[in-house]
User: Fold these one by one.
Assistant:
Number 1:
Amino acid sequence: MISIYLQGDSWLHRTPAGLKLLAVAVASLLLFQVSSAFIFAACLAAVVGCYATLGRSGLERLALLRGLSVLLGVLLLLHWVSGTFWEGVPVILRLLVLILAANLVSITTRMDDMLEAVMPLFKPLEWVGLSARKPALCVALVLRFAPYMMQILSRMREAYQARTGAKNSWKLLPPLAIQCLRMSDNVADALQARGGSEGLSGQADIPTGPRAV
Amino acid sequence: MADRSLVHIAFYAALIAALGLVPPVAIPFLGGVPITAQTLGVMLAGIMLGPVRGGLAVLLFLFLVALGAPFLAGGRGGLGVFASPSVGFLIGWPVGAFVAGWIMRATPGMNIFASAAISAAVGGILVVYLFGIPGVAYMANLPLGTAAVGSAIYIPGDLVKVVLAALIAQTIARGLPGAMLSRS
Amino acid sequence: MPRLVGVVFQNPDLQAIFPTVEEEIAFGLTQLGRDRRESRDEALEFLAIHGCAQLASMPIAELSEGQKQLVCILSVLVMEPRLLVLDEPLTSLDLLATRKIREKVLSLPQKIVMVSHDFSHFEGFDRILWLEEGRLRMDGPPYEVLRAFEADIDRRSGVKLELAAL
């Protein structure tokens, strides 16, 4: 299953998703009130420590930093150019803390549980006459068809390369987009044939759950 | 919302995810800042699906990324992405798609290339940067001007995307006029 | 309608809407009003009854065309329709998958209506309706309709050959 979830049984894995989300939200709010590099450095150490509790594969996930380092470096450079280098350092540290902490929640929470934790946010949709089921159905549909679209695109690129020698072209997008719409019509028919997104009994449930990782 | 639209939205979000797998293309004469197929897909969302469905498709895509799907170009995903200094740009995507779709709808008489180009430029660049630059300024504690200058290197690439988006829209409209849901 | 009639379409890739097999089957049950937990349990039982328990947690994208079509059929069957309509279900399948799906379909207690352009698919069916240009041209037992159909093809291709000879 395509997800950044890291299989495991750590204390973080066992913490409920809602709690983790709340913790990160509160931490973010608090951290934005502070500007001390020392506090941020301490927080950073704590977060890295948490990654360590996930074992070696957890620490490997810190490689995320590699991709960020260029961006953060540029930001620090901009600070330096503006003469605010020393004000820039704690800011960069804070960004690091928040990014790593947020990522930590994501790698220790299954998508299924994450979705379930945020479903209450969709309750208000019912007040305006929209179904709270539909977001869950949409999530399932995207997870079902994203790999399919990737395969199709992959085959199209291969065929294009075989014909023209070039690996990419904007010319691949029109047929891809058209196929996309045609395919979605077929799927909509099949969905309709089983009662549509509303179900056959009014307030129906959705068997979401990308359980298998 | 009709089931047909629901599935269109989900499929388009899946398309944006698929585009994340295409390696970025570096434009040699623009200093090598690579342009990604994914952002092109985001630009086209509103142009193809109209304001509401296009905006929702991009929003759905981002929702899946937030849940943990590694759909962002480069295989990135999860909440960490939204704590990054470029989060403003991500927030701008669905709004930009909405505006692009709105402009397409508001210009039915105009030729598709022009209409799509304007939609892509306003929705895909103007609106997105309107959210993106203040986002960088806030997250990195930089003055708006500096953040703007820092983000400016991406603009030439984005302008190329505007032209591509217009070409694509024109090609689609010629091949299958009914596919331009923003105009039907 | 869906409660009485189940429809299976031609392309096995474009019917399932959930990532895994068990979710897809369970969806039919949640559509009928069962809650999520019940549906998952019943879906697993249902798969076991049909000899597909090992497919339960597999992503649909990883199944073969024949397996996918089987899942499509099962996901409709789980809703207990009285009539099952299959629209060209065997078109994208290879010979082995075709045989297996035909076997499955013919073993079902439901009334089955199958649409096809390939006569070999109709072996084992009780009655064939031959539709041409939107009209019912013939309705009868397979052997009779097949003979008439073949005669018609002979006649049509015969005429073409004569014209070519001129």
Number 2:
Amino acid sequence: MKVDLVLLEKLCNAIGVSGGEEEVRELILKEIKDHVAEVLIDTMGNVIARKSKSTEGKPRLLLDAHMDEVGFMIVNHDGDGFYTFQKVGGIDDRILPGLKVLIGENKISGVISSKPIHLASPSERKNSISFDSLKIDTGGNMGIEPGTRAGFGSQFQANKETIFSKAIDDRIGVATLILLAKQEYLNLDLFLTFTVQEEIGLRGAKVTAKSVNPQAAIVVDATPAYDQPTYDDQENSFYNTKLGRGPAIYTLDSGTLYDRRLVNYFEKTAEAAGINFQFRQPGGGGTNAGAVHLANTGIPTISISVPHRSTHSPISSSRIADWENTLLLIEAGLKNFHTTIIN
Amino acid sequence: MHNLKEFLFELIDMPGVTGFEDPVRERINAEWSSAGFETKIGKTGALIASKGIRTGDIPRNKVMIAAHMDAIGMVVRSIRGDFIQCAKAGGIDDRVIPGLPVTVYASKGREIPEPIEGYISLPHPKSLKPGDEEGLILLDRLLIDVGLTNAELKEKVNIGDVVSFNTKPFELNSKLICGHSLDNRASVAAVTSFMHEAKDIPKDWEVYCVATSGEEENFNGAITATYEINPNIAIVLDVTFGKGPGSSDWQTFEVGKGITIGFGPNLHPKLVDLAKKVADRFEIPCSLEILPTHSGTDAYAVQIAREGIPTLLIEIPLRYMHSAAEIVSLNDIERASRLIGYIINSLDAKTLEKISWEVENEG
């Protein structure tokens, strides 16, 4: 299997702020409809696809990736094209001043305001700009209604080794699932869910995991790397993953104690296939696994993520090789999967 | 046919960090030459263009129109891990740069630097000195990620290499343009439009246009070019503060509603009066911009060049100055260009007499 940067670019440039995933959903449906037996959109807006019809006696397995991304919602027009806004999902306020955003279905351009440093008081200069002082500036009244969503205005870029884009979290997972949906799995009753509202509390997966009710689940996401130097060149004791070291297999995070049988299975699968991988450092953060593994009577779950830097930012970066190895690892894991692994 | 908007978009999609103006100067030089001006490059990097010079004539008066072409930016100070850390070139605002796309001009072993694109990332709180984790993170702690490993960076990047903003320009509603380096490429565009329109130069005058260098650091282009030209009158163009969220006091002006003429000790009062009269006569929307001391522009250097130069300052309102998302109005740029044109046309043999101080000498 090969990565598809054209597909990833389309997905990353689409805007799907939590609760407004339409554009991403349309792209997904178009990509998978000829490759799956059944597809439906549930009441939350989640896409649930079943790979094949003849499934008797085969293990029911779930692959999940979330469609949504962090962004903004316009909450008031203050006049003359200046809008008050709120954040949707976890965004560091310090990346906001000067940020380009695209607003609504028509993708109207705007920028987030900042008081020029020349006019700032000495105390203002010493501090980051407070969120409450920021407005979205569209350059004139564009008839934008409160409730309209806005996303990062940056565009996907890649060189030979590295992807630079907004929303790598989790379009890289979405793209992985789309590519996997185009393969055949005679050993599995495979379900794919493309979920909404992960960034505001794993809301979509809390529903899909229950309705699919799989015997095991694999959550595919992007994990922050934090693989950077410290101010005093001491050991970096806080990194999650390192770019270039391959897919990250989770063992424990703030939401999930991962199923050891699945962790061992994927570790062995990677070793057998000679696929570069790493364990994500145990600790904070989490994925849809936090919702999935607690659904119904409990679902053995694993998270496999592509490392990326500067999460929830207008530009994050990932290594193409890490994505490729993620794809290869999950593909190998699916093709060799059998129920005894989780018995 | 010169297209103001297209040229401006080109100018603000181009590096020209203060002290390293070569790429933008080359583009401006081509445009100014095509407008029929003779050009040369000053010894510290300013671009000097002239028209109306006739050798052998009786020396005529000279008017200099100056706009700085340099922009704020950064230079590499260290390579740490897979990241680059930078120092400021000009008045970079630490508060507005995390998350921005940048281009590093990697020069190691190369005559022409290789542009490498990346972005400015916020460091993890635990990577910072205890006490520094929250709030504003200064540029020297921010990390530039260009997707290269430490070994690759060391092979390509030199300490001191230039780093420029790489936000792409775009148009907002109502003829507003958004991008980086509009301070002061907006003024360069206004001067360029004037040059394309300037068919007849007043017969008693020579016109010099200068794209100055180093304004954001030390005014080196303005200081040396003014010395070299030795003008009788200077007109400096720059940008001023646009009204916007949190910026609405007397120092700010509505973007798109007109330009400003500077007033204060940095400018020549009689030249200010002359410019106001011209603006009124030709109905160019124009406010008086009160500058009680330092104008913060090239005018500060130009005024005290040689034995003193009568200096005028015309400014274009701009929102979010020194961010990578500055906003100006094309209408205001056109107004600035027209005002320069009308002022130049109003110059005659008596202009210098009209603006001179009156002294009554006895006997």
